[in-house]
Write a structure and sequence with these properties.
Elements: E1 2-6, H1 16-25, E2 30-33, H2 63-72, E3 78-84, H3 91-104, E4 109-113, H4 119-124, H5 132-148, E5 152-155, E6 160-164, E7 178-181, H6 185-194, E8 197-199, H7 202-205, H8 210-223, E9 232-236, H9 242-251, E10 255-259, H10 265-282
Parallel strand pairs: 1-2, 1-10, 2-3, 3-4, 4-7, 7-8, 8-9, 9-10
Antiparallel strand pairs: 5-6
């Protein structure tokens, strides 16, 4: 099982390039950065994590800029969006950003995506909350066309463009792995349909037996025509508990991702040491 670290990169936390260097030195496989372009001041949408929304949600750096800084100072660390809000981005521009990051990192991008929870935030970008999944599906299909075709075109309800040229193409072929965030049967079906990679949050993943949910996902992926050997499950936000990590490892989880707080190095680096030691212990 591989191990990663996720952090909200903010204007008051350890710089992403320093975090990336320290992670690579400790043997972590991947760095994961979330995104929120902004948080509407109305605060109408309830945060799934509780009553009070932590301030890092509206202090978050752009993930592609921050991951670019991480790419420049590392050689092996995989660079993940956890998650990218595709429904808030233009698909032609986003296809360029993902391919550019994959190019400058020499093929180290992990493209984590999701539908989002803040209705007002995405509506500021012109995305109706009720239509976000349909929009997400079309935008990803359009991006795949841009990544894999010399002259890509796409004609759908939400995305429509005639033949275009867009380079660079991703280093990873046919494109970086697309990991679908979310828990429950609908998320597992989307993961099976999109690329065969599922990435549920740890707390929500444990709300149902992990072995059963993984078996369900693998069955859905096989029905969707995915190669069983290429199907993966990554658990996001795992607890630093050796027994639970060992259970995930034994269940066939490909990747476990720890969260660290948006804090300065003196608070974050000891956690990296703790999690790296735990990763070595569990294996």
């Amino acid at each position: 099982m591989k191990y990663g670290i996720a952090m909200f990169p903010t204007d008051y936390a350890v710089q992403t390039d320093q975090l990336a260097r320290e992670m690579e030195a400790r043997g972590f496989e991947s760095l994961w950065l979330p995104e929120h372009t902004h948080i509407p001041a109305s605060r109408k949408s309830p945060w799934p994590g509780g009553a009070d929304l932590p301030r890092e949600y509206w202090h978050t750096l752009d993930p592609f800029v921050a991951l670019g800084a991480a790419a420049a100072v590392t050689k092996t660390l995989m660079l993940g969006t956890g998650i990218c809000l595709v429904i808030e981005r233009d698909p032609i521009t986003l296809a360029k950003e993902v391919a550019s990051l994959d190019h400058i990192s020499r093929g180290r991008v992990l493209f984590g995506i999701g539908g989002g929870w803040n209705a007002e935030e995405m509506e500021h970008h012109g995305t109706p909350f009720a239509e976000r999944w349909k929009i997400l599906r079309e935008r990803i299909a359009a991006m795949k066309a841009i990544w894999t075709q010399d002259e890509a075109e796409f004609h759908g309800k939400y995305v429509n463009f005639d033949k275009l040229w867009s380079y660079p193409k991703p280093v990873q072929k046919p494109y970086p792995p697309i990991l679908m965030g979310g828990a429950g049967p609908h998320a597992r079906q989307r993961a099976a349909d999109f690329d065969g990679h599922w990435m549920p949050m740890g707390g929500r993943a444990y709300s149902e037996p992990i072995a059963e949910s993984m078996a369900d996902f693998r069955a859905r992926a096989e029905k969707a025509g995915r190669d069983p050997a290429a199907v993966t499950v990554s658990i996001f936000g795992v607890p630093p508990d050796a027994a639970k990590l060992a259970a995930l490892r034994d269940a066939g989880v490909a990747r476990a991702v720890f969260f660290v707080p948006s804090a300065l190095a003196d608070a974050v680096l000891p956690l990296l040491d703790q999690y790296a030691a735990l990763a070595r212990k569990v294996g």
